[in-house]
Design goal:
Strand order of the largest sheet: 1-6-3-4
Low-confidence stretches: none
Distance between the termini: 26 Å
Radius of gyration: 16 Å
Largest sheet: 4 strands, antiparallel
Mean pLDDT: 86
Number of helices: 6
Structural class: alpha+beta
Shape: globular
Length: 149
C-alpha cells in the first residue's frame, strides 16, 4: 500500500488481521466532531486488528493508516484463529506483541487528569520520536501542528 492509505476504518467491520512486513502505520482515534488523535506509530514488523480479534468484536475501534509505503500479509480472522490455535509459537508472538503495545496505554491511563498538557505533550513526543531525538542534536517532528494537536 502507498503512504497515506487507510488500512482499517474506525467503526467499520474488519474481517482481517494485517501483519505489517515493511513500512509504517499510525493508529488514530477519530471523533464525531471531526477531530482525530494519533496514539500509536508502528514500524514493521507488526500487527493490526488484534484488539478486535482477541475481544471477539467485529468493528474496528480505531483507524489505521499507512505513513510510509507498506507491505502487509492479510488473512481472515478465521484463518488467523486456526493458525494461532495450532501453532503455539505464532500465538505467543501475537499475544506478546499485543501486550507490549497495550502496556504503555494502560500504564499511562488517567495521565490527562494528573499532569499538565505540556507534560503530556513532551511525554508523547519522547515516546514517539525519542530514538530519533536522542540520535541527533536537533530533530524536526515530521507532522504538522494541526495533526499534533
Amino acid at each position: 500500500m502507498p503512504a497515506n492509505e487507510t488500512v482499517i476504518q474506525k467503526g467499520m467491520e474488519n474481517k482481517y488481521i494485517y501483519i505489517l512486513l515493511e513500512g509504517e502505520i499510525q493508529v488514530l482515534n477519530e471523533y464525531e466532531n471531526g477531530r482525530s488523535f494519533s496514539f500509536a506509530v508502528t514500524q514493521a514488523p507488526g500487527f493490526t486488528g488484534l484488539l478486535e480479534f482477541f475481544a471477539e468484536e467485529k468493528y474496528a475501534t480505531s483507524t489505521v493508516e499507512t505513513t510510509k509505503p507498506s507491505v502487509f500479509l492479510r488473512m481472515t480472522k478465521s484463518d488467523f484463529r486456526q493458525w494461532v490455535e495450532n501453532d503455539f509459537s505464532a500465538y505467543k508472538t501475537a499475544v506478546t506483541y499485543f501486550a507490549k503495545r497495550m502496556y504503555p496505554s494502560i500504564s499511562s491511563m488517567g495521565n490527562s487528569g494528573a499532569y499538565t498538557n505540556r507534560h503530556i505533550l513532551l511525554n508523547y513526543l519522547f515516546l514517539t520520536y525519542g530514538n530519533d531525538i536522542n540520535s541527533k542534536r536537533k530533530y524536526r517532528i515530521p507532522i504538522t501542528k494541526e495533526k499534533l494537536a
